[in-house]
TrEMBL record:
It comes from Caulobacter rhizosphaerae. The chain crosses the membrane at residues 12-28, 34-52, 73-91, 103-121, 128-154, 166-183, 204-225, 231-251, 281-301. This is Sodium/bile acid cotransporter 7. InterPro entries: Na+/solute_symporter_sf, Put_Na-Bile_cotransptr. Keywords: Membrane, Transmembrane, Transmembrane helix. The lineage of its organism: Bacteria, Pseudomonadati, Pseudomonadota, Alphaproteobacteria, Caulobacterales. It comes from the Bacteria.
C-alpha cells in the first residue's frame, strides 16, 4: 500500500531511505573512534562503488555513439557549462547562506545520471542509443571535469583546499574506475548476471556515505546552521534551477535543429545531476561536517528531477507517432 502511494506521488523509495539516513544520523550520529572506523569503511565502499561503475560501463556503447557528436557536445555543454554558470550566479546572488550556496555550486559541477536519463528517454520515445552514449560519456568525463570545475569554481569560492584536493579525488575515484574497466572482460558477465545484488551494493554504499557525512555534520552543529525556512528556500531554488535548465534544453535543441527523438535525449541527459557520483565525491573532497551540508541540495534536486522528468517523459511519449 505504501509502495502504491509513493508511486502515485512520484516519490522514489530510495530517496526516502537517503533522508532516513539523515534522520538516523541526527538521532544517533557516529562519534570518536567509531567515526574513524566508519570513515575507513566509507573509503572502501566508495572505491567499490566506482570499481562497479567502471566494470558496468560499456566501452562499445560509448564508441558506437561518438558519431552523433553534435548531440553529445550539446548535452555536455548543458551539463558542464550552463549548469556551473547558473551555480555561480546562485552562489553570488546571496539568496542562500554561503554553505548552501556552496552545495548548489557543487551540485552544478556534477555529471548527468545514467540509468534514469536512459529510462526517461525510452519512456519519451527519444533516441535511446544516443542517450546511452551521452549519459555514459557524461559520467566518464565527469571523473575528470568535475574535480577541475570544483577546483576552479569552489576554490575561488573559498570551499576547497586547492589542487591537492582535486588530485586526491581524481586518484581515489579514477583508480578503482579504471581497474573496473580493465577487469570488465572477466567481472562483466558476473555483474550482468547479478544486477540486483550489484544494485544493492551500489545503493548501500551511498547510504553509508550519507550517514557518515551527516553524522559528522550533526556533531559539527548542522541543525544550528540550517533552519527549516532555509530548507524550504533551498527546495524552491532547486526547483527553479531545474526549470531553467529544462527550458534551455528544450528550446536550445529546437533552435539547433535537432529532431524530436534527439530533443528528448538532450532534455533528459542534459538536465539531471548524478546522486551516485556526487555523494561519494563530496565525501572525499570535503571534511565530513561540510560534506553533510553540501549534499543537501543534491538530495533535494535529485528527487525534484525524478518527479518532474517522470511527468515530462510521459507527455513526450504521448505525442503523435508521426512526430517520432
Amino acid at each position: 500500500m505504501l509502495k502504491d502511494l509513493l508511486a502515485k506521488l512520484k516519490i522514489d523509495g530510495y530517496i526516502l531511505a537517503l533522508f532516513g539516513m539523515v534522520v538516523l544520523a541526527s538521532v544517533l550520529p557516529v562519534r570518536g573512534e567509531a567515526a574513524m572506523i566508519v570513515g575507513w569503511v566509507v573509503k572502501i565502499a566508495i572505491a567499490l562503488l566506482f570499481f562497479l561503475h567502471g566494470a558496468k560501463l560499456s566501452r562499445e556503447a560509448v564508441v558506437a555513439g561518438l558519431t552523433h557528436w553534435r548531440l553529445h557536445l550539446t548535452i555536455l555543454a548543458f551539463t558542464f557549462v550552463l549548469f556551473p554558470a547558473l551555480g555561480l550566479l546562485i552562489s553570488r546572488s546571496g539568496v542562500l547562506s554561503p554553505t548552501l550556496s556552496s552545495g548548489m555550486l557543487f551540485l552544478c559541477c556534477l555529471p548527468s545520471t545514467v540509468q534514469s536519463s536512459i529510462a526517461f528517454t525510452s519512456i519519451g520515445r527519444g533516441n535511446v542509443a544516443a542517450a546511452v552514449c551521452a549519459a555514459s560519456a557524461s559520467n566518464l568525463l565527469g571523473i575528470f571535469l568535475t574535480p577541475v570545475l570544483v577546483g576552479v569554481l569552489m576554490q575561488a569560492h573559498g570551499d576547497v583546499g586547492g589542487w591537492d584536493s582535486v588530485q586526491s579525488i581524481v586518484v581515489q575515484l579514477l583508480v578503482p574506475f579504471v581497474a573496473g574497466q580493465l577487469l570488465r572482460p572477466w567481472v562483466g558477465p558476473w555483474i550482468e548476471k547479478h544486477k540486483a545484488l550489484v544494485g544493492q551494493v551500489d545503493r548501500g554504499s551511498i547510504l553509508l556515505v550519507v550517514y557518515s557525512a551527516f553524522s559528522a555534520a550533526v556533531v559539527g552543529g548542522i541543525w544550528k546552521i540550517v533552519s527549516i525556512p532555509e530548507l524550504f528556500l533551498l527546495l524552491a531554488v532547486c526547483a527553479a534551477l531545474l526549470a531553467v535548465v529544462m527550458a534551455a534544453t528544450v528550446f536550445g535543441s529546437r533552435a539547433l535543429g535537432f529532431s524530436k527523438p534527439d530533443e528528448v535525449a538532450i532534455v533528459f541527459c542534459g538536465s539531471k545531476k548524478s546522486l551516485a557520483t556526487g555523494v561519494p565525491m563530496a565525501g572525499i573532497l570535503f571534511p565530513g561536517a561540510t560534506a553533510g551540508i553540501l549534499v543537501l541540495p543534491l538530495m533535494l534536486f535529485h528527487q525534484i528531477q525524478l518527479m518532474a522528468c517522470s511527468v515530462i517523459a510521459q507527455r513526450y511519449g504521448a505525442r503523435p507517432a508521426d512526430e517520432a
